[in-house]
Amino acid sequence: MLLRLLLFLGCMVMVALCAEDFYKLLGLNKDASEREIKKAYRTLSKKYHPDKNPGDDTAHEKFVAVAEAYDILIDEETRRIYDQYGHEGIEQHKRGGGRPAQHHDPFDLFSRFFGGSGHFGHGGGERRGPNMEVRVAVPLRDFYNGRTTEFTVEKQAVCSACEGSGSEDGHVETCDMCGGRGMVIQRQQLAPGLFQQVQTHCSKCGGKGKTIKHPCPVCGGSRVVREPETHELHIEKGMPKGVRITYENEADESPDWVAGDLIVHLMETDPHLGQQDHERTDGTFFRRRGKDLFWREVLSLREAWMGDWTRNVTHLDGHIVQLSRKRGEVVQPNTVEVIENEGMPIWHQQLPDGIDEAFGALHVEYVVVLPDQMDKSMEKDFWSVWEKWRKKMGVSLDKENGRPEGPMPSQGHDEL
Ligand SMILES: [Zn+2]
Ligand SMILES: [Zn+2]
Q1: How far apart are CA 367 and CA 301, in angstroms?
Q2: Average of per-residue pLDDT across 153-168
């Protein structure tokens, strides 16, 4: 008796273990939206597809389980039953003759999402659709800080209303005119007794070999629709401009092929100040070349010459880079100051082994602006100072450079 009880308990545990929670399996919360469920299916079904994991039984089981979880959760009724009664409820629902939701063969379901016949076709001769390339531009700030964002592309997708059959009722007949070949052979008489055989596209089915009595109202029988699809975009710190990010099998879909890859070229937007605080930094106007950043700082004549100034430049993440000179420190126009480690973070793929983090340099170019307007009395003051010192210690650069003093009347250049 005890043995039987133990066996029974054992079986219960087995059942519980076998049936993994559908939400957990798809990595979702209980309140996941339809979009999130689809997204999870897209990601996981590609990951566990047997074509990608040859000989791996666990992956195959996961692939089947993910399809089942999708079928149950995407249907409102079965999802409600599952939420209330779990796996047991679903089993009873099936036994009780409840509408079996959309029960898909896992490969059919896969083909509904990615086109083709449900296989990637590595060596299987499956046709592959063309890759799709798009440019996505993000501000320099995102390349510096890293960010996860989204972008949307419009693409051709297998019509979900008819599941790519093109038929409202699911019935697709073989064309009776061409017998499904899509081609017909016509005999043309060229002259009495002289015939020519011409092979042409079947006019009845348009060369498809199949006809549909009731075309799907959503796609009009074309089996595909155009629709926007949103993808997550992970911008990693220091990614180079123009880097290519590949989304496997996310290009245009068609029942006739397996979708190719969507390739994103990550570009940089022109700098402009955003609305939010963190978008309003001086760093917005940095220019980037590889791992280095460039910045132009303007100094007045007084600052360039006499020193005693400080500038706080807000970097792309809001931290401050302080530029300064003490009194008496001269900055020549167009001098470039190189500040190490204030450039771009170096992308992890380009870091040398054993180093977790490194930065390029910030190049600050100083531009000196001379005043073109001056208060009259100020001009007088300066003038008299110049005159005073010029008489005392002014040096004629012409003489210094060994230039002859006559006969050209020389204006005389000053050092001061
Ligand atoms: Zn349709
Ligand atoms: Zn035909």
Answers
A1: 10
A2: 90
Q: Of the candidates 71, 49, 69, 67, which has an alpha carbon nearest to the alpha carbon of residue 58?
A: 49
Q: What is the domain partition of the chain in residue ranges?
A: 14-103, 132-268, 277-369
| CA–centroid distance, residue 269 to ligand 2 (Å) | 51
Nearest Cα neighbor of 264 from 280, 236, 285, 243 is 243
> What is the CA(247)–ligand 2 centre distance, in A?
37
Q: Which ligand is nearest to the CA of 255?
A: 1
Superfamily of domain 14-103: DnaJ domain (1.10.287.110)
Per-residue pLDDT tens for 250-275?
999 998 889 999 999 999 999 888 88
Which numbered ligand comes closest to the C-alpha of 209? 2
Supply the CATH classification number for the domain 277-369: 2.60.260.20
What pTM was computed for the model? 0.76
Measured in angstroms, how far is the CA atom of residue 131 from the centroid of ligand 1? Answer: 23
Q: Which of 163-177, 217-231, 355-369 has the lowest mean pLDDT?
A: 163-177
* pLDDT computed for residue 240 by the predictor: 96
